[in-house]
Amino acid sequence: MSTTNVYLSQYNTTLYRFLADSCTNIKSVGNPVTHNFRGYTRGAWMKDPLGIMGAETIFVMESYYSRKVLQEFENMDMFKAGVARKTYTLPYNYDGTGAVVYGPFLYYNR
User: Is residue 83 part of a domain?
Assistant: First the structure.
């Protein structure tokens, strides 16, 4: 996806407008396929962009408030199978779905 950077001098703000991908056109959309079912309909799942925790490692925080459990899955196949490699108990409950794993650190709202 390409980005266009437009400067709005009257507001002294930068606006990013995302342009449509010109390389692909969606031809059709099929019926949804369930690969895994989690106990909650809301939550967050993420990967470490640096790959320090493993290039394929997936981290999951179920729900979006009053929980303090982070699950680590080795890869997408283990995530689909529901087999966690490790479960972390956080020192505080998290609030919201904006958590981020960056290197060996987890950033979240409490």
Answer: yes
**Which of 61, 62, 86 is closest to 72 using CA atoms?**
86
Full domain range(s) for residue 74: 43-107
Which of 73, 110, 108, 74 is CA-nearest to residue 92? Answer: 110
3-state secondary structure 75-91: CHHHHHHCCCCEEEEEE
Go through 59-98 and write b for each residue having 16 or more CB atoms within 10 A of its CB, e for each that does not: bbbbbbeeeeebbbbeeeebbeeeebeeeeeeeeebeebe
Q: Assign 33 a pLDDT band (cuts: 50, 70, 90).
A: confident
Q: Per DSSP, what are the bridge partners of residue 102?
A: 105
Q: What global pTM score does this model have? A: 0.68
Structure tokens at 108: 């979240």
Number of domains within the chain? 1
